[in-house]
Every structure is written in structure tokens, then in C-alpha cells.
């Protein structure tokens, strides 16, 4: 099984009152790019690329290490340049998997804006620096191609003419614009007197004939695009608030502006008049959240769509001729702090008190209308009644509110709690809210009882008349509801070793999941005397923040501050599937929408949908100790009765040096039997994992080994009767493949290899090396083989099959991960198949022949694999698991 990302319901653009919010569109007009940063420490390090036509489809870039500020598509549409508050600019692939192309420090401060040249080769980045306020670099190397000078205060905006001769313009808090010639870009003239307050936006027309500037003085100025000469001011007095954004139509005949006066206007530069106006909010009412702080007119579209962003972060879709937005896309601008699901509504609450209701069928959100929370939403829950139409929320404004899920509205009055809530749980008739020293019971909005406690409650869950409360005393206290009175049953669950941080009952109430601050999860059987089901759910490395059970009650989903989402099984507690780095700043909510769909919400202000599906992987690896974070699900197809999953009771362990042959004569290595194997000439290759790596997180640092013969069934017995050939070669360190991504390699051979020229041959045994522990590529494995025509010395028949030394791939550097498989003979003759296997960046395993007469520097790690002869001399891959040996026919890899 695997947890596959199905959708990202993106955060809204970050906005700040009095500042422009840059928006960018790709050349096709299909996506917009923007930054999502928050006013919280260590939060908001994402860039979102969001589909315009289907806003529920987006891509998230999370490689910035500080809060992001701006993102711009390149004119080619293949790359995005994004900046952050540290002055770093990253250039990354937006057409593929989001790989970072370059990371360049520009200034010692916040990046406010970016611009690309028409060739997608040069970038100007500007902002609030110390020694300088901007710089011009090449996109591929970060080399300097000019200087940005002439300003005495931070630069807010920049634009580059897309035609030659290249020109650029910047606008600043010093009220001036500077015009540059390039490339390399250099100061040409300072344009002063046009604006008398901050300049917030500047933009060249697509044909390069003119550029315009806007600012806090509500003025719009036009300039000659080639000379920089100021031409004229238009629309004086039309906008009544600061103008924060400007964008041109693709025909260069019109441009659009966005203003704090709550309007977006289309202008005819020749006539100097506004030809279309949209005003957001209620007519005649001044509304700060409706201030328009950014705008983009996507090129490449035929519908003339304009997208603006207001101070609340809402994206407004505007079409010429329609007086109102045709669509409003909403999301969170702050960390999502709590979540719950009721039918097809997924409700989320955030740090600033906003509550949104997401339609799980469309992935779009609506604001829950009514008297909202004014501070941190500490909890959202739904009652355990069958209707599931009512939600309850509590916040650090010390209020309790009811929400109608179908109507997406707060109902009734806000109820003053007179204490800060630690969470919330609900039954069909009551709402339970813990404080620092008591548990209050509410019914119909009125507090009806309270139970004092001697510990500090940290979490709460309820089902029917049973209430579980977790405390900072590392205990789970079980209570029962008698009417509206909460009574102590004196049942205490004591398994946890750190404060309780999350609780969740299954839908029937028969199971309780308990999450702790140290990342461990415990499952209890509430219907059988609170017996412990498992305490092995222990792969998280930080506080458990949320838990949820699926309908079958066999699986539980968990979220943690470690950024990961995991799904656990009660039937096989050692199994799990995981979505690593699911939410950049921690996971704060999980829910099951249906049997195989998990929804999560987190500190990155986004909501993500995950599909639980059968994996194409053969295995994902397991550690020898249950406490290791490397435990993971085996594929469901590998059941205990799988014909190639063989039990290993007390598997023998031995030093690898007793297995590996180091011969000084590479042409005639001696045949070696394992000293631990008797009664046959069989041998299994043993690898040792020497250390941890990014690919091996959580693996036990110990010798992994297996040997043969093992106990029946006969398949393994037959396998043990056949040799496992290998060839010894010397691995030289004379050539350091430093550009090769060695961190992506999982294993190496424990034997030494000698470098040989193409066409030479060695006799003896082959070893498999650098084979990654999964095969999850879309392409099937091609087992086509080419055969060696060289004959060996007849004396070596049945012991030393011939092999070719050309084991490196001609596509060595284009594939991200390399795997060399041994040449396994199809019979005991002097000729055998010669094959090289390569695992590329997409994890597709292919086969082919190649030659490279260079020695290799293997700086990798080892684990348990063996490619062995099996009955009829077919190649098999042997994989050592905790208590079993998985033997996989190599020709079956493409079918799995």
C-alpha cells in the first residue's frame, strides 16, 4: 500500500496592509504563482502554483528555508524564480517535479519583486537590502550581469522589457523610478517628480513600447519603453486609494490596476480613461478586507480573464463586461490549527480565527459566515450523532460556537467560556470542553455541569456516554456521562510515557487511539476492558497532533509536528504507510473522507488529499527493531502465504568477511563456499549496512545477513542447491564521481572489484550492487539480455561462468540511481547473459549494455540483497526481512 497525493487545496496569497502582493501567470494563462508566508516564526515557506480553471489543482514548492515573498514565471513557462525574506532567490522547474536549478543570495534582506528578461536567461531581484537594494543575475548560474543602483530606499517593484534593446525599470520607497539599459544592466536615468509617495508597481507593455508606474499617491504614469522618457499621467483622481498592482493585456492596448479603494479598473492608455470598474464589497461601505492589493492579466487566454487578490487573500475572477466577480477563490492565510469532517464538508480553523468549510467533492472553500472567532481556533469537532450536520468550534477568544455544516454558517450566539479551552469533544446532546483544571459540559449552548480535575487536560475525545481525557500526567482518564453529569470511572490508561497530545474514538466507539508528545501512538480496545491493541505505532519523531479512524476501524491516520502523515493497521501493527513532509510546518488535522481517502491540514495553511492505494513497490524496507522509524508497509500482495515469502526462524548471522572472497588474481579467483553452509555448494551474498543516509532513515545500523540452506519449503531448498555466482573486482578511488548523487544509492557490494577494460573477462562470482529497495516506476522491467560469446577455460566450467566487465551504463549521469546486476548463467556453460540494470530518477528500472573504462568511487551503504540462481537457473532477488526471506523472480519485477 502507499499514500499518494491526490490534491492540494492551496493556501491563499499572503497579504499585508500597505504592501503590494505580486501575482504572476504562466505564458499559457493556465496557472498563477504566488507566495504564502505568515506573520509567525518559522511559518510560510511555500510557493503555490495554482490552476486558474481548476483552483483545487495546485503544486507546492517548499524548498525555501525562510518566509517566501514573491514568485514569477519565466517567459518560457518552464521555470519559476521565487524570493524570500532572507534575500535568497531560487530558480526551479515548474514543468516537472519542482527540482531546484539554482539558489542565489541577492541582498541582505527581504526580496520584494522579481523580473525575467524575454529570453528567460536573466533575472533582476529587488527588495530591502543593506548594502544594495537589488541585483541582476543569470538564471542558470547566478553570475552578475549588471548593477541595480540609483535608489536610496527599498525597491518595491521591477520590470524588464521583453524585446531588445533590453531595458528595465524599478520603483522605490524614495518615490523615484530608475531606468536601466542592458545587458549588462546599468543605470541610465532617475525619474523623479512623477510620484510623491511610494512607488508600488511598474510594468512594461508586452510589445515593449511603453511602461507604466503606480503608487501610494494614487497616480498612474506612462513612459516611453525604449528611452524611459516620461510621457503623461492618466486617471488623476479616479482611484481614491493607493494603487498596489498593474498588469497589461496581451495586445498592449489596455492595462489593469488594483487599489486600496476596493476597485479594480481597466484602462485605455491612449484615451487615458478607465473603461471598466469592479468594486468589491457592499456598495457604499468601506471594507478594509476588500482592499485590492494585487492583480494579474494572464496572457495566453481568450476569455480576457483578470485575477485580483484582496487583503483577505481571496482571488477574484473578473471578466470584462461582467460587473461582479465570476468566481471567488478562498483559502487560509495563517496556519491551520484544527479540522473536522462532517459529511462532504471539511471544516478548518486557523491561527487568526478564520473558519472555512471545504467541499470535498470540488476542493473549494467557503467562509463560514456569521460571528467568527477573533483568535486562534483551538478545536473543531462534530457530534457522534448519525446526522453529522452540526460542528462545534472553540477558540482562544474564549468562546464556543456552533456551525451548520450544510449552510456553512455560525448558528446561535457565541457562548462565553470564561476560560481558555484546551480542546473540544461532542456527543449527540452535549459538548465537553476541558480547561486547565476542569472539564465543562455544555448543552444547548449553556454550561450544565463541570468536573474539577487534579491534572491539566491536554486533549479530549467522546463517544456515546464514554469520555476520554488526556493529561500532562501521561495518563488517559476515562469518564462516563450520566445525563449531563460527568463521572469518574477510575479507569486510567497508563501505557504512555509522555504527556497525551491527541485522542480519537473509532466510529463505533470500540477503539481509542492515543497520541503522545513523544510521537508514539497507542491503540486500545474500548469494548474489551480497555485492552491494549498495540503500542508499536511509533514512527513519528515529534508530538502527535491529530488522529482519525477509518470506517472499517482497521486503520488509523495520524498527523504530527514532524510534518508527516501516516496510516497504521491494527491487523498488522508493524505496518504503516506514510506521506513524508506532508505539511511544511506540521500537521494539525486529519480525517477520513471515505474508505481510501485521507484529508490533512497543517501549518502551511493548505489542505491536502491522499489516496490509499495498492503500491507497485515490491517492498519499502523494514528495520530489525520495532522502534526504528524505518518500519513500513509491505505490499498487500505479499501476504503471509505468498509463494516467495519464506519464514526464517532464528536466521543465522555471520561476518560478511567469511563470505566475501578477495583474490589477488582477478582473472582466476578461487571458488569459495560459505563456512556456515554445509551439505551443498550453495552460497548467499551478505551485505552490511554501515551507516544511515537520507535513503535509509531509521534503518538499524547492524549486520543484516541471511544464509542458505534454510528450512523447507522445497523451493528454497532447491535454491540453496544452486550457486550464487559473483565476480571479485577492485574498486579504486582514483576517479571520484562527485557529481553522481550517491545519497540516492541504497547499497554496495561488500567485495572488492578490479577495473578492467572493455572486452576483458573475469571468472568467478558476481555480486549485485547499488540496487535500490523499491521498484515503483511506471515502466515495466525489460529483462532482455545480451550474451557473451567468449569461452572460458574448460577447467572452470560449473564454477566460474564468463562475464563481461562493461557494467556501467552509457547513461550514467542521466539516471539518478544506478544498479549493476550480476550476469547469471542460464546453464552451467562457459557463456552467460550479460546485463546491466539502471534505476533512473523516476525509479524506472531498465536494462542495457554499455562501456566505461573508469574506476568508481562508491561512497554508499549496504543492505541485504542477493541475486541468486533458482530452479531452472532463473534469476531471483533475495531480500532479507525481519522474519522472512522474500525471493522475487527477476522476470516478475515488471509485473508487480
From TrEMBL:
UniProt keyword annotation of Membrane present: no
GO biological process per UniProt: actin filament depolymerization
Matches recorded under SUPFAM superfamilies: TolB, C-terminal domain, WD40 repeat-like
InterPro entries with a match to the protein in the record: WD40/YVTN_repeat-like_dom_sf, WD40_repeat_dom_sf, WD40_rpt
GO cellular component: cortical actin cytoskeleton
Record's compositionally biased regions (Basic and acidic residues): 653-664
Pfam families assigned: WD40 (PF00400)
Keywords (A to Z) from UniProt: Repeat, WD repeat
WD repeat copies, ranges: 61-93, 192-233, 236-277, 329-368, 537-571, 580-620
Compositionally biased intervals (Polar residues): 665-676, 719-736, 785-805
Gene3D superfamilies per the UniProt record, alphabetical: YVTN repeat-like/Quinoprotein amine dehydrogenase (2.130.10.10)
Region spans: Disordered: 621-676, 717-736, 784-805
Keyword Repeat: yes
Molecular function (Gene Ontology), one example: actin filament binding
Similarity comment text for this entry: Belongs to the WD repeat AIP1 family.
Descriptive protein name: Uncharacterized protein
Amino acid at each position: 500500500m502507499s499514500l499518494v497525493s491526490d490534491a492540494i487545496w492551496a493556501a491563499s496569497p499572503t497579504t499585508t496592509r500597505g504592501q503590494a502582493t505580486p501575482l504572476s501567470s504562466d505564458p499559457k494563462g493556465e496557472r498563477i504563482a504566488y507566495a504564502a508566508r505568515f506573520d509567525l516564526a518559522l511559518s510560510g515557506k511555500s510557493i503555490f502554483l495554482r490552476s486558474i480553471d481548476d483552483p483545487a489543482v495546485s503544486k507546492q514548492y517548499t524548498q525555501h528555508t525562510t518566509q517566501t515573498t514573491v514568485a514569477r514565471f519565466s517567459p518560457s513557462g518552464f521555470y519559476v524564480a521565487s524570493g524570500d525574506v532572507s534575500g535568497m532567490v531560487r530558480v526551479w522547474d515548474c514543468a516537472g517535479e519542482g527540482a531546484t536549478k539554482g539558489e542565489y543570495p541577492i541582498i541582505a534582506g527581504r526580496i520584494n519583486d522579481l523580473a525575467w528578461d524575454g529570453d528567460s536567461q536573466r533575472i533582476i531581484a529587488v527588495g530591502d537590502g543593506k548594502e544594495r537594494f537589488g541585483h541582476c543575475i543569470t538564471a542558470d548560474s547566478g553570475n552578475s550581469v549588471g548593477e541595480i543602483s540609483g535608489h536610496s530606499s527599498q525597491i518595491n517593484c521591477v520590470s524588464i522589457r521583453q524585446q531588445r534593446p533590453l531595458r528595465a525599470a524599478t520603483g522605490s520607497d524614495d518615490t523615484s523610478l530608475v531606468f536601466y539599459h542592458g545587458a549588462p544592466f546599468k543605470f541610465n536615468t532617475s525619474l523623479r517628480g512623477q510620484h510623491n509617495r511610494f512607488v508600488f508597481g511598474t510594468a512594461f507593455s508586452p510589445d515593449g513600447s511603453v511602461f507604466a508606474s503606480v503608487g501610494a499617491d494614487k497616480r498612474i504614469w506612462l513612459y516611453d519603453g525604449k528611452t524611459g522618457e516620461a510621457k503623461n499621467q492618466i486617471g488623476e483622481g479616479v482611484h481614491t486609494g493607493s494603487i498596489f498592482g498593474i498588469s497589461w493585456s496581451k495586445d498592449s492596448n489596455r492595462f489593469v490596476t488594483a487599489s486600496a479603494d476596493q476597485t479594480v479598473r481597466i484602462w485605455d492608455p491612449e484615451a487615458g480613461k478607465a473603461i471598466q470598474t469592479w468594486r468589491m464589497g457592499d456598495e457604499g461601505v468601506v471594507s478594509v478586507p476588500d482592499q485590492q492589493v494585487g492583480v494579474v492579466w494572464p496572457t495566453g487566454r481568450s476569455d480576457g480573464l483578470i485575477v485580483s487578490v484582496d487583503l483577505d487573500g481571496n482571488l477574484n475572477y473578473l471578466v470584462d463586461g461582467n460587473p461582479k466577480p465570476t468566481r471567488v477563490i478562498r483559502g487560509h492565510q495563517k496556519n491551520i490549527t484544527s479540522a473536522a469532517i462532517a459529511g462532504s464538508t471539511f471544516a478548518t480553523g486557523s491561527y487568526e480565527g478564520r473558519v472555512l468549510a471545504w467541499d470535498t467533492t470540488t476542493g473549494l472553500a467557503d467562509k463560514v459566515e456569521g460571528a467568527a472567532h477573533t483568535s486562534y481556533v483551538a478545536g473543531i469537532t462534530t457530534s457522534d450523532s448519525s446526522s453529522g450536520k452540526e460542528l462545534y468550534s472553540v477558540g482562544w477568544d474564549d468562546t464556543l460556537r456552533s456551525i451548520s455544516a450544510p449552510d456553512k454558517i455560525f448558528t446561535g450566539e457565541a457562548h462565553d467560556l470564561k476560560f481558555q479551552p484546551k480542546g473540544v469533544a461532542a456527543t449527540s446532546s452535549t459538548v465537553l470542553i476541558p480547561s486547565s483544571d476542569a472539564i465543562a459540559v455544555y448543552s444547548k449552548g449553556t454550561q450544565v455541569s463541570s468536573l474539577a480535575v487534579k491534572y491539566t487536560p491536554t486533549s479530549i475525545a467522546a463517544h456515546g456516554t464514554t469520555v476520554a481525557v488526556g493529561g500532562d500526567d501521561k495518563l488517559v482518564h476515562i469518564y462516563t456521562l450520566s445525563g449531563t453529569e460527568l463521572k469518574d470511572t477510575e479507569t486510567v490508561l497508563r501505557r504512555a510515557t509522555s504527556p497525551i497530545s491527541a485522542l480519537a474514538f473509532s466510529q463505533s466507539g470500540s477503539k481509542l487511539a492515543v497520541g503522545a508528545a513523544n510521537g508514539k501512538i497507542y491503540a486500545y480496545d474500548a469494548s474489551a476492558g480497555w485492552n491494549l491493541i498495540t503500542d508499536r505505532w511509533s514512527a513519528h519523531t515529534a508530538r502527535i497532533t491529530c488522529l482519525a479512524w477509518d470506517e472499517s476501524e482497521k486503520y488509523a491516520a495520524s498527523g504530527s509536528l514532524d510534518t508527516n502523515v501516516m496510516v497504521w493497521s491494527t491487523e498488522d501493527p508493524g505496518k504503516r504507510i506514510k506521506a513524508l513532509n506532508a505539511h511544511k510546518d506540521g500537521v494539525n488535522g486529519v480525517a477520513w473522507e471515505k474508505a481510501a481517502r485521507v484529508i490533512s491540514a497543517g501549518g502551511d495553511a493548505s489542505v491536502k488529499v491522499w489516496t490509499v492505494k495498492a503500491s507497485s513497490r515490491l517492498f519499502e524496507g523494514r528495520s530489525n527493531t520495532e522502534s526504528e522509524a524505518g518500519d513500513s508497509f509491505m505490499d498487500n500482495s505479499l501476504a503471509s502465504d505468498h509463494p516467495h515469502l519464506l519464514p526464517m526462524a532464528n536466521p543465522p548471522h555471520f561476518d560478511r568477511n567469511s563470505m566475501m572472497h578477495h583474490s589477488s588474481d582477478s582473472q582466476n579467483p578461487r571458488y569459495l563456499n560459505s563456512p556456515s553452509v554445509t551439505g551443498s555448494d550453495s552460497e548467499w551474498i551478505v551485505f552490511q549496512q554501515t551507516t544511515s543516509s537520507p535513503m535509509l532513515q531509521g534503518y538499524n545500523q547492524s549486520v543484516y545477513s541471511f544464509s542458505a540452506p534454510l528450512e523447507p519449503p522445497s523451493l528454497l531448498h532447491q535454491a540453496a542447491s544452486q550457486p550464487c555466482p559473483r565476480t571479485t573486482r577492485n574498486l579504486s578511488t582514483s576517479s571520484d564521481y562527485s557529481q553522481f548523487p550517491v545519497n540516492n544509492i541504497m547499497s554496495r557490494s561488500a567485495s572488492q572489484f578490479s577495473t578492467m577494460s572493455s572486452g576483458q573477462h573475469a571468472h568467478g562470482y558476481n555480486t549485485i550492487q547499488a540496487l535500490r529497495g523499491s521498484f515503483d516506476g511506471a515502466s515495466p522491467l525489460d529483462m532482455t539480455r545480451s550474451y557473451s560469446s567468449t569461452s572460458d577455460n574448460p577447467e572452470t566450467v560449473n564454477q566460474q561462468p564468463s562475464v563481461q566487465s562493461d557494467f556501467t551504463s552509457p547513461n550514467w549521469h542521466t539516471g539518478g540511481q544506478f544498479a549493476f546486476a550480476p550476469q547469471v548463467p542460464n546453464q552451467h556453460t562457459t557463456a552467460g547473459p550479460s546485463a546491466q540494470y539502471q534505476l533512473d530518477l523516476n525509479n524506472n528500472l531498465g536494462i542495457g549494455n554499455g562501456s566505461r573504462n573508469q574506476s568508481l568511487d562508491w561512497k554508499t551503504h549496504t543492505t541485504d540483497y542477493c541475486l541468486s540462481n533458482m530452479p531452472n537457473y532463473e534469476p531471483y532477488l533475495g531480500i532479507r526481512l525481519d522474519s522472512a526471506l522474500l525471493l522475487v523472480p527477476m522476470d516478475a519485477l515488471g509485473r508487480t
